TrEMBL record:
This is Catalase-related peroxidase. Heme binds at Y328. Gene3D superfamilies: 1.20.1280.120, Catalase core domain. It comes from Bradyrhizobium huanghuaihaiense. One of its GO terms (molecular function) is heme binding. Keywords: Heme, Iron, Metal-binding, Oxidoreductase, Peroxidase.
Length: 350
């Protein structure tokens, strides 16, 4: 079909413009993926650093590979509306999909050997809008930046002990985390752990007011300290057994508490806790109602990407969520493409 001359010329102009825009976008993607700068931290380099010497956990998450899926509800008490217009803060009950997990790349790890315990969570509003998050039990993160996390993984993977000494000298904030790991009491249950966002996000309410916040899930179950040596006497999967038994007898609950930063608080650095006296607000309760199959249940094909946020919540100046999002996506793509190595309905563990 032949176009009239004027339209043809303007179509050609549009095509050139579209090509230029696409070219710029491709260059921007290439830049953000690190292709144009070999020294840059990329999702591939982060995944390589997470990979144990024995090889990648094919078909599994590249970190927090061992876990157990659940469903439940988030019961909002309505208080959160003051801080954020996210629909799931309006008083009501919202469906939740979640996963308790261990901070390890080994899907067969012995539960008593893994210090960091976590939770992945998705809360859905009635119109399908989703809020995804992934939180852990330490009160602050191990390091200040995604780059330092990469260096930590590299140093921890080296045989020479000097590698960790040099890392700690260059990243002194790691000392506080090492002290937490050594001295914080262990518990025998996912239900007795707090889970903390650590990263900060910005809440916007209906009036447009903005607050930078972090949030935590505080367990209703009373934590019972137990020596790690005693946990080692239990089976390799005692955490899964325990949470399955508890949830079968009654829903397990956590209070969601938001903490608002004061001006000047370190919002971009999750290794620095904010002072205890910051404004806290209880916004609702997580109720875990049903343990679901891990291998072929609803958590298998979800990526608890912390940048999947509802309206009324956005990322802050904290650089972690964007970095995490790119690595989680890479991990998700890998495990989805390796499904054959972790067949659904397989009899073998896990
Ligand atoms: C740059 C820093 C980080 C990197 C590179 C990283 C990497 C990863 C990867 C690759 C996964 C598996 C994703 C998937 O396949 O779905 C994962 C899961 C997870 N991460 Fe991170 N992570 C980082 C920081 C954090 C922080 C700061 C927290 C908590 C505050 C956290 C908590 C979790 C949790 C709870 C999961 C398991 C979620 C699930 O069950 O699917 N991570 N992480």
């Amino acid at each position: 079909m032949k176009l009239p001359g004027r339209l043809e010329r303007s179509s050609l102009g549009s095509l050139i413009l579209i090509a230029a825009v696409l070219g710029c976008s491709a260059a921007a993607f290439a830049y953000s993926a690190g292709w144009l700068s070999p020294g840059r931290l990329t999702p591939d380099r982060m995944i390589a650093a997470l990979t144990p010497p024995s090889g990648p956990p094919l078909g599994h998450r590249r970190n927090h590979a061992k876990g157990i899926c659940f469903t439940g509800t988030f019961e909002a008490n309505g208080n959160g509306v003051e801080l954020s217009r996210a629909k799931v803060f309006a008083q009501g009950r919202y469906p939740v999909l979640g996963r308790f997990n261990l901070g390890t790349a080994d899907p067969n790890a012995v539960d008593a050997t893994v210090r960091v315990r976590g939770i992945g969570l998705q809360i859905s509003a009635a119109d399908g809008e989703e809020w995804r998050m992934a939180m852990i039990n330490p009160p602050f993160f191990a390091v200040s930046t995604p780059e330092a996390f990469h260096e930590l993984l590299v140093a921890a993977g080296k045989k020479e002990p000097e590698a960790m000494t040099a890392f700690t000298r260059a990243n002194p904030e790691f000392g506080a985390f090492a002290a937490w790991a050594k001295s914080a009491p262990w518990t025998a249950s996912y239900a007795e752990e707090p889970y903390n966002s650590l990263n900060s996000f910005v809440f916007t309410n209906a009036k447009g007011d903005e607050h930078t916040v972090r949030w935590s899930l505080v367990p209703t179950a009373v934590p019972v300290p137990i020596a790690q040596a005693d946990l080692q006497k239990r089976g390799p999967d005692f955490l899964e057994q325990d949470i399955t038994d508890r949830v079968r007898s009654a829903p397990q609950r956590w209070t969601m508490v938001t903490t608002v930063a004061d001006p000047g608080d370190p919002t971009a650095d999750p290794s620095r806790a904010w002072p205890e006296n910051r404004r806290k607000m209880q916004v609702g309760t997580l109720a875990v109602q049903r343990i679901e199959a891990e291998r072929d249940g609803p958590c298998r094909d979800i990526n608890f990407d912390p940048t999947v946020l509802p309206q009324g919540v956005r990322v802050s100046d904290d650089p972690f969520p964007a970095a995490r999002s790119s690595v989680y996506r890479k991990s998700y793509d890998l495990r989805a493409s390796e499904a054959g190595a972790y067949p659904r309905n397989g009899a073998a563990k896990p």
